[in-house]
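[Automated response] Your request has been received and processed.

Submitted sequence:
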Amino acid sequence: MSDLLAIFGPTDSDEKLIGEIERLRPSRVTVLIEDVGADWAQDETPAGRRLRERLAALLSAIERRTGATVTGLAGSRAQLAGWRFDREVSGQRPVPV
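Generated structure:
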């Protein structure tokens, strides 16, 4: 059994990151969409609705393509304090310092 944390940033990396998740064949995936306001679940603006639709689409696509158990949230890594993952993947490339 493998637990994977998938960190999504800009929408243009979604398909590439889903492909990477599929390649890794995890049994459980936690999806995190970073840099989202704390009120994202109640945000009724067009941007809030798009975020919820994106999260639902990501969860569905990952579950369908990998067969993994998938959970999701939006916000920050601070929400994951104490959680452990075997691997992490991200659509954002690290920036050299």
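Summary generated for your ticket: The chain has a mean pLDDT of 85. The chain has one domain: 3-90.
If you did not submit this request, please reply to this message.
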